[in-house]
Design a protein that fits this description.
CATH superfamily of chain B: ABC transporter involved in vitamin B12 uptake, BtuC
CATH architecture of chain A: 3-Layer(aba) Sandwich
Number of strands of chain B: 0
Strand content of chain B: under 5%
Largest interface: A-B, 35 and 38 residues
Mean pLDDT of chain A: 92
Structural class of chain A: alpha/beta
Helix content of chain B: over 70%
Strand content of chain A: 25-35%
Distance between the termini of chain A: 46 Å
Number of domains of chain A: 1
Largest sheet of chain A: 6 strands, mixed
Number of domains of chain B: 1
Low-confidence stretches of chain A: none
Structural class of chain B: mainly alpha
Number of helices of chain B: 15
Oligomer: heterodimer
CATH class of chain A: Alpha Beta
CATH topology of chain A: Rossmann fold
Radius of gyration of chain B: 20 Å
Largest sheet of chain B: none
CATH class of chain B: Mainly Alpha
Number of helices of chain A: 9
CATH topology of chain B: ABC transporter involved in vitamin B12 uptake, BtuC
Shape of chain A: globular
Strand order of the largest sheet of chain A: 6-7-8-3-9-10
């Protein structure tokens, strides 16, 4: 089973400390939420965990090997990341773009086979883009482009999924749809996911674990039931928080 | 030339993503394959057509007779003059089109062309210097390659830096280097004697009159084509941006330099054969993108074939339109290319971009 671990990880950007000595292990079947105010470094941390940029010190281990020493192709078969922004410059069809998720699984001269195509078609249906297969990606709306990027990630079939605000630009229905899909990947396929979010209530509803970035390198990580409470959230976002009991459990609202 | 470079830089920077093919559905894959077949047929027939037309236009039966008798007057005309020239035109056109496709991926910009990073400027400057100092014509292509190499090294060295690959940084370094070459070229031109000026100007505009096709250039074309086709799926991924490509398993640093090197070698070879023929490397990939989409597994062969057809056709026009006066082919490609390009841009704008 593939897991992704951070070992006493120090990450900073432009002299700003994002986390000091961060230890956590993202195991199969776990759904981590990454919370923190704007500009605290959630994206930078995710990029570091994906091996896109080196940490200041400490290690990121993918299947117990340092991610920096693994060839990107090997990493891409195990770990996939949905970036915060999706911009398509060149014309390609929606189907072709979803199929790029197969790229790390194919050899240089190999073409996508019928199985690959079927996976892409299934993923397109999952993100509610069925009927768009032959449309050009340059004509998609922001939300549609986002859902397509998520479809490519499903097609990539990584054991570890890192998602940078996947619900950006999405309406309520599609937010839930994406979150359900990530949950299905986590519980059904025994994959591990970490998701950067601003919506605390989506985290409360879906996540099993939480990591909070508090600034100046401080962080907190642990099971959702221990961490997601009023005191921690008020400290995290520096604003009053009200707790509401619903049939689905505790939910959080900005207080006054 | 200086301001041409600068205007080009401005256009490249103004260009926002997603300006082409807004909502239209693309050609289905099966049709794309038949398009490749049609382009192949067009390539062969364009070369035949070029060998039959010119100051002496040959009919079908005359042409057939002449081809079978290489020693006859018409036979010599075809075998020694027209066919080699048509073939050179085809090869140069293919190279420029392929290089254009690669540059567009490298800079993630559908409006990039093979000359934008100054490769041709270096080649042109070295060749002109060679002409001034009366170096034998056979050595000029080597000088061109040398000049291109110097240019690549300058841009490579300055744009690399330590940070991640930056298309903008590469573009700016390239464009400024190109402007530098343009200035040096103007300097050489203004200091050259009048009697050699005409030949130099023709060469600068892109001219196939004295073009001979060295056999190694075929190897360059064939080798690059096979390599590029093997990397075509990676090119698709690279076109989606460096980070996306890395997340999908591409060692992007290595790949992007390889793409840069391939594009530069193709451009340098083309320039060394025929001077800086403009617009082929811009218009052909652009048109083919509109036709077949951006899957490089189809786009690369389509652009390569059509680049050849386009330049053979343009060169035939250059030889015949004011016959017996011959025009530099670069003038024709620009005269065809500019309105076509404006039309495409305008079409994109009408669609509401």
């Amino acid at each position: 089973m593939t897991s992704l671990a951070c070992q006493s990880l120090d990450v900073s950007i432009a002299g700003k400390n994002i986390c000091s000595r961060l230890d956590l292990e993202l195991e199969p079947g776990q759904f981590w939420g990454l919370l923190g105010p704007n500009g605290i470094g959630k994206t930078t941390l995710l990029k570091c965990m994906a091996g896109l940029s080196p940490p200041d010190s400490g290690k990121v281990l993918l299947e117990n090997q340092e991610i920096e020493n693994l060839p990107r192709r090997v990493v891409a078969r195990l770990l996939g990341m949905l970036q915060q922004h999706t911009v398509y410059v060149f014309d390609a069809s929606v189907l072709e773009t979803a199929m790029t998720g197969r790229h790390p699984h194919l050899a240089y001269w190999e073409r996508e086979g019928p199985k690959d195509k079927q996976k892409a078609l299934d993923a397109i249906r999952v993100v509610d883009l069925a009927g768009f297969e032959t449309r050009s990606v340059t004509g998609l709306s922001g939300g549609e482009a986002r859902r397509l990027a998520f479809a490519s990630l499903i097609v990539q079939e990584p054991a570890i999924l890192l998602l940078d605000e996947p619900t950006n630009h999405l309406d309520m229905k599609h937010q839930i749809r994406i979150m359900n899909q990530v949950k299905k990947q986590v519980t059904g396929e025994q994959r591990g996911a970490m998701i950067a979010l601003h919506d605390v209530n989506l985290a409360a509803r879906y996540c099993t674990h939480i990591v909070m970035l508090l600034g100046q390198g401080d962080w907190q990580a642990g099971p959702v039931a221990e961490l997601l409470n009023r005191e921690n959230l008020e400290r995290l976002y520096q604003c009053p928080v009200e707790v509401v009991q619903t049939s689905g459990g505790r939910r959080f609202l900005p207080g006054s | 030339m200086l301001w041409v470079c600068l205007i080009r830089a401005i256009i490249l920077n103004l260009n926002q993503p997603s300006h082409v093919n807004q909502s239209c559905k693309m050609i289905p894959t099966s049709l794309r394959r038949s398009l490749l077949f049609i382009l192949l047929l067009l390539s062969v027939s364009s070369i035949f057509f070029a060998s039959a037309s010119g100051s002496v236009t040959l009919g079908w039966s005359e042409w057939l007779a002449a081809v079978q008798e290489p020693t006859s007057r018409h036979g010599e005309l075809i075998w020694r003059l027209r066919l080699p020239r048509a073939l050179a035109a085809w090869v140069v056109g293919s190279m420029l089109a392929m290089s254009g496709c690669l540059m567009q991926v490298l800079l993630r910009n559908p409006l990039a062309d093979p000359y934008v990073l100054g490769v041709s400027g270096g080649a042109a400057f070295a060749t002109l210097l060679g002409m001034v100092f009366g170096i034998a014509a056979g050595f000029l292509p080597w000088l061109a390659i040398l000049g291109a190499l110097v240019s690549i090294l300058i841009v490579f060295g300055l744009a690399r830096g330590t940070g991640p690959w930056s298309g903008t940084r590469l573009l700016l370094t390239g464009v400024v280097t190109a402007s530098g070459w343009a200035a040096l070229i103007s300097l050489v031109l203004s200091l050259s004697p009048d009697n050699s000026l005409r030949g130099m100007l023709f060469w600068l505009m892109g001219d196939l009159s004295y073009a001979t096709l060295p056999s190694w250039s075929l190897a360059v074309l064939g080798g690059s084509f096979i390599l590029t086709l093997g990397l075509a799926r990676s090119l698709n991924v690279l076109a989606m941006g460096e980070t996306t490509a890395r997340l999908l398993g591409e060692p992007t640093h290595r790949m992007l330099w390889l793409v840069y090197l391939l594009a530069s070698v193709l451009t340098a070879t083309a320039v060394s054969i025929a001077g800086s023929i403009g617009f082929v490397g811009l218009i052909v990939p652009h048109l083919m993108r509109l036709l077949v989409g951006s899957d490089h597994r189809i786009l690369i062969p389509a652009a390569t074939l059509f680049g050849g057809v386009f330049l053979v056709f343009s060169d035939t026009l250059a030889r015949t339109v004011l016959s017996p006066q011959q025009l530099p082919v670069g003038v024709i490609t620009a005269l065809l290319g500019v309105p076509l390009f404006l039309l495409l841009l305008n079409r994109a704008r009408l669609k509401g971009v």
